[in-house]
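Inverse folding, one chain.
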């Protein structure tokens, strides 16, 4: 099955951009995913091709018009009715590896890229559009965010990373950061590789990696660690709760 990526944008020339090289490019050439860009401006009603207007209530900047957005989304849904429509916005739900896995397992994704001050809020409920953020930063447009989302999905498509790596051990897959990596030379500017990694003892190496993933997650990402610990404890207490009922 080909994963269908459809990008609704004012800047189609920004695609495939970095997805036109390396793994993603090869995967597209092999038909593992397809890319289609749709120019939002083509759905403007007036002869000036206006897609934005001033914010209701006043203030700086311009807002993407809901009528234009509705038309472009309806067009995209006609092309790929089964693909979720996702708007990139800093107000959205932060993107997670779990959501990326879900998307990569589906038929594709239609991504709506904002510009200016963003979207008329009514579009989200009006067209059942999911709002997704790629982090607590503000970009000048949704296109780089869309590229990130697609990159994360494409590498998970069957056969893209090759049999050697399923990505299952990587950061966030088990709710933790990945353990640190090392390679040759064994000694570099007085710094060595942890002894255990050169021991050849696979059980010890696995235990060391698990412990490092936990230590690093706890110190670098207390938010992730808390969630991980919560998830570990939750099923047991949830099960006890069920028995009582
Ligand atoms: N006024 C908006 C706000 O403060 O929430 C920011 C608009 S931003 C300048 C223009 C567009 O960039 C947004 O509509 C969105 O598509 C995209 N964008 C900016 N930051 C983003 C983020 N963290 N995640 C996803 N998209 C983002």
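Residues assigned per position:
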């Amino acid at each position: 099955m080909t994963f269908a990526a459809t990008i609704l944008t004012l800047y189609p020339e920004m695609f495939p951009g970095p997805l036109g090289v390396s793994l993603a490019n090869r995967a597209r050439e092999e038909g593992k995913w397809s890319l289609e860009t749709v120019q939002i401006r083509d759905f403007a009603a007036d002869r000036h091709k206006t897609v934005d207007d001033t914010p209701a209530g006043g203030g700086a900047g311009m807002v993407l018009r809901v009528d234009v957005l509705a038309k472009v989304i309806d067009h995209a849904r006609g092309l790929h009715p089964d693909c979720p429509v996702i708007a990139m916005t800093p107000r959205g739900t932060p993107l997670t590896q779990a959501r990326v896995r879900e998307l990569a397992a589906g038929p594709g994704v239609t991504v709506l890229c904002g510009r200016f001050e963003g979207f008329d809020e009514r579009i989200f409920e009006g067209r059942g559009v999911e709002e997704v953020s790629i982090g607590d930063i503000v970009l000048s447009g949704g296109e780089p965010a869309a590229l990130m989302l697609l990159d994360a999905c494409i590498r998970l498509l069957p056969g893209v990373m090759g049999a050697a790596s399923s990505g299952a051990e990587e950061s966030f897959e088990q709710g933790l950061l990945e353990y640190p990596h090392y390679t040759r030379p064994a000694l570099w500017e007085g710094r060595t590789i942890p002894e255990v990694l050169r021991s050849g003892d696979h059980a010890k190496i696995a235990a060391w990696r698990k412990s490092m993933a936990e230590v690093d997650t706890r110190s670098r990402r207390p938010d992730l660690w808390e969630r991980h610990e919560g998830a570990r404890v939750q099923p047991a207490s949830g099960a006890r709760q069920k028995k009582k009922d």
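The mean pLDDT is 94. The pocket of S-adenosylmethionine is lined by residues 88-91, 113-115, 117-118, 133-135, 137-142, 145 (CB under 6 Å).
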